[in-house]
């Protein structure tokens, strides 16, 4: 896992452009000079740029034909090697973003492009290029003391705790497409795909975090969405499979696909169903995973949050299942009422 230290980071250069929605003919407004900011504002900006960026998942620039044809990649190389071209290169980045802003739900906003220094990644001190788009502004109140009273006014600005879209491009591994981390608050919506896929054109770096995260996601999809098509299982059985999946990744350092299938699913019919689903899922989603890889603790923690172990019964009861499924028994009374019988050794 890549270790990153931002404690000594400084803003070397920064410029702000206005980028609208091309579909709505909102145009763009390019700055000719770098932005002006005092020392206190610099500290607030660093908090704004870095506080919400997650460092577990890494990406790299890509292109279907040749990475040199990825325009953001070539502009990034230029900024890192020729600081005197920072303003013109940043203007070209803003123009490229404008060309991709064609979805009706894309908001206009301020595009901040900044060059940072003194960032440490894997014991290497590197420069970092940051590209941030701020779209969601909100009002805030200022109370200014006068001689005999207060003058209360409002301003419109951006919340330090909220960043719409951003990326950090580390000046390392340039031959492979650099190392990149991103933030996109609308990443699950269709209109947001332009930021990652069309504008930046990046793909996941297939490290241990990515592989662990992807495989746990496949296992969850299989249990919650697909398994009913091949087998008749109770919800308690499904929850047991989810718990076993997470437990396997928590107790092992190295993932082995055959070992996982045997320990988690056990039954040959379930294993065969999973293998068919896994193969189809990888083909349809263009996912490449090894059958053995080092397990990432961060990815396991992330996925564990969405592996629900709650059995909901009408609106009356929620049963949390964390362990042995043999301690819960399902049945139906003669009058048709359904029940679960739960066994335990002590009450806590």
What does this structure look like?
The chain has helices at residues 39-50, 71-81, 86-100, 193-200, 208-226, 235-251, 257-264, 268-285, 297-304; strands at residues 4-5, 10-19, 28-29, 59-61, 109-121, 124-134, 138-145, 150-157, 165-170, 179-184, 202-204, 254-256, 292-294, 310-313, 317-320, 328-332, 338-342. It has 348 residues and is of the alpha+beta class. Strands 1, 2, 3, 5, 6, 9 and 10 form a 7-stranded antiparallel beta sheet that branches. The protein has a two-stranded antiparallel sheet with strand order 4-11. The protein has a two-stranded antiparallel ribbon with strand order 7-8. Helix 5 runs antiparallel to helix 6 (235-251) and helix 5 packs across helix 8 (268-285). The longest helix is centred in the middle third of the chain and has 19 residues, at 208-226.
First-to-last CA distance: 39 Å
Radius of gyration: 25 Å
Largest sheet composition: 7 strands, antiparallel
Element-level helix/strand string: EEEHEHHEEEEEEHEHHEHHEHEEEE
Helix content: 25-40%
Query: Low-confidence segments, ≥5 residues, pLDDT <50?
Result: none
State which percent range the strand residues make up.
25-35%
| Total helical segments | 9
| Strand-pairing-aware structural class | alpha+beta
Total beta strand runs: 17
């Amino acid at each position: 896992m890549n270790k990153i230290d931002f404690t000594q980071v400084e803003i070397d250069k920064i410029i702000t452009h206005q980028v609208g929605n091309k579909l709505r003919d909102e145009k763009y407004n390019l700055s000719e000079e770098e932005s002006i900011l005092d020392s206190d504002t610099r500290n607030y900006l660093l908090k704004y740029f870095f506080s919400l960026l997650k460092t577990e998942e890494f990406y790299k620039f890509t292109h279907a034909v040749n990475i040199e044809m990825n325009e953001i990649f070539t502009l990034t190389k230029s900024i890192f090697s020729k600081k005197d071209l920072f303003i013109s290169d940043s203007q070209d980045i803003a123009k490229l973003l404008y060309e991709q802003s064609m979805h009706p739900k894309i908001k206009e906003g301020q595009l901040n492009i900044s060059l940072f220094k003194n960032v440490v990644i894997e014991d290497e001190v590197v420069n970092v290029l940051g590209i941030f788009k701020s779209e969601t502004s909100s009002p805030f109140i200022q109370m200014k003391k006068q001689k005999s009273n207060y003058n209360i006014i409002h301003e419109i600005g951006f919340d330090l705790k909220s960043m719409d879209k951003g990326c950090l491009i580390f000046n390392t591994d340039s031959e492979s497409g650099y190392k990149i981390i991103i933030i996109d608050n609308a990443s699950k919506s269709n209109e947001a795909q332009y930021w990652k896929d069309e504008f930046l054109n990046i793909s996941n770096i297939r490290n241990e975090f990515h592989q662990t995260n992807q495989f746990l996601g496949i296992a969850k999809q299989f249990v919650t969405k697909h398994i009913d098509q091949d087998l008749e299982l109770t919800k308690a059985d499904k929850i047991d499979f989810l718990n076993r999946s997470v437990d396997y990744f928590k107790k092992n350092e190295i993932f082995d696909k055959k070992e996982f299938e045997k320990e988690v699913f056990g039954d040959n019919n379930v294993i065969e169903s999973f293998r068919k689903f896994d193969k189809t899922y990888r083909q349809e989603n263009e996912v490449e995973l090894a059958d053995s890889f080092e397990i990432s603790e961060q990815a396991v923690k992330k996925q564990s949050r969405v592996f629900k172990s709650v059995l909901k019964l009408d609106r009356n009861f929620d049963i949390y299942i964390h362990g042995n499924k043999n301690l819960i028994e399902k049945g139906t009374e003669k009058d048709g009422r359904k029940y679960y019988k739960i066994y335990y050794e002590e009450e806590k």
